[in-house]
Amino acid sequence: MSSQVEISIPTTSTAANPKPHTIYNITLRLPLRSFTLQKRYSDFTALHSNLTTSATLLPPCPLPPKSWLTSTTTSPTLAESRRIGLETYLRAINTSLDPRWRNTSAWRTFLNLPAPHSSSSSNSTRGTLHNNNTSDAQPITDPILWLDVHRELKSQLHSARQQLTSREQEAAASTYTTTTSHSAQAQHEHSALAKKSLVRAGTLISALEHGLKASQDSWSSEKLGEGEVRRRRDLVSAARKEKEGLEGLMVTMAAKGRADAAVRDKQALLEGDAGAGKNGARGTGGRGRPTTTTGRRVLGKETERTRELDNQGVVQLQQEMMREQDEDVLALAKAVRRQRELGVAIQEELEVQNELLGMLGEDVDRVGGKIDVASKRVDKIS
């Protein structure tokens, strides 16, 4: 299958160091990005040699020959002819039905393409982003690909948020409808998709962080400034916080869903027992014997938790619910005991404060009496 990555060499330029030579500006257009590479003719000859060695077969198009008498820096005609030949050479490999040259590391390294199948399909970059799992995520060391992966990370977080919103809408709609099984299935599907997106987002965050740490020095010195590195670090930190917030929201939704399901199941069981009691009262005719034709007990309304259970399973479910209620009662009793202890402590503190106030009152009376005696003596002296 031929590649859909567009490769062209639209222009050339001349460099003076270390000695005058021609630079070929290669433009690549991938599904998610476009960029330009600068290569010398010697780079093409090295590529041709590596491709031939790796694929054990000559490329589909020959490399333009080297000129020993004329230089491309002094002959625009030769430079243009070689530009066309090199462009034809790259396009022949890129569009060949045989992918063996495109699958080599020499080809990917030469064009700065992400591994492992960047130029062999139309979804090359997306394939690289989606085919890694959590355990084998590779650091993203290319600064341009880093931005593409961050864009994919934002897409995964947005998808997770949308799935959680849809789940919440399904949960809200289920409170007004009777199709609880369909709603529960839809909620489960939305939760699974959201979890998948969050797991993928975690993988991308790790790859971005590791790539940023591994390539920080080279980026800072060659391509990215310190301000850009800090900005990218802030982007990863914000994405991690958003992911953790979505995970917390998903856990809260799951807990709320379990609580709502338990309440619905309890109500359904109570309604079923009440309905069975009424049917039994009507069917016994006042003599305690059912008059149903099947001779079976009248079942209540089935729920998601009781639909697959037999009578023993329903009894066990009721016992489990009763144990949960007992645990809630014990927790409530513990809280009440704690409140009682606080009340007793407050009462004891009030008693101590009252004693202190009484002692203060006695001291005030005693000082007042002394002041009266002193005032009388002052009056006698005067």
Structural summary, described in words:
The protein is mainly α and 382 residues long. Helix content is 67%, strand content 7%. It has helices spanning 41-55, 76-95, 105-111, 124-130, 143-174, 180-223, 226-284, 311-381, and strands at residues 6-15, 21-29, 34-39. The protein has a 3-stranded antiparallel beta sheet. Helix 5 packs antiparallel against helix 6 (180-223), helix 5 packs parallel to helix 7 and helix 6 runs antiparallel to helix 7. 18% of the residues are buried. The model is unreliable at 116-136 and 283-298 (pLDDT under 50).
- Strands of the largest sheet, in order across it? 1-2-3
**What gap, in angstroms, lies between the N and C termini?**
125 Å
Mean pLDDT: 79
Give the structural class: mainly alpha
Number of helices: 8
Name the poorly predicted regions. Answer: 116-136, 283-298
Query: How would you spell out the order of helices and strands?
Result: EEEHHHHHHHH
Query: Residue share in helices?
Result: 55-70%
Strand content: 5-15%
Strand count, sense and barrel status of the largest sheet are: 3 strands, antiparallel
Number of distinct beta strands: 3
Radius of gyration (Å): 40 Å
Sum up the overall morphology in one term: elongated
